[in-house]
Amino acid sequence: MKGKVSKVKPRIGVMPTKREPPKKSTYKRQDKHQRPIDDEEAD
């Protein structure tokens, strides 16, 4: 059981770290998509 707990702890720590970058990437993607749209509207 101790072995399983050790493996679960590292995984839990890695999952949040992997989840954060995807969220940041989504925000950056939205900003990039919004910027071109704003430029088109300005034109």
What does this molecule look like?
This protein is mainly alpha-helical and 43 residues long. It has one domain. Helix content is 95%, strand content 0%. The chain is built from 1 helix and no strands. The longest helix has 41 residues. It starts with a helix and ends with a helix.
Primary descriptors:
single chain, mainly alpha, 43 residues, rod-shaped, 95% helix
Write down the Rg: 19 Å
Oligomerization category of the chains in this entry: single chain
Level of helix content? over 70%
What is the straight-line distance between the termini? 64 Å
Number of domains: 1
How many helices does DSSP assign? 1
Shape estimate: rod-shaped
- The mean pLDDT is 58
Query: Which regions contain 5 or more consecutive residues with pLDDT less than 50?
Result: none
Alpha-beta content class: mainly alpha
* Count of beta strands: 0
- Helix and strand element order: H
Largest sheet composition = none
Residue fraction in strands: under 5%
Could you provide a short overview of the structure?
By secondary structure, the chain is mainly α.
Write the layout of secondary structure elements.
Elements: H1 2-42
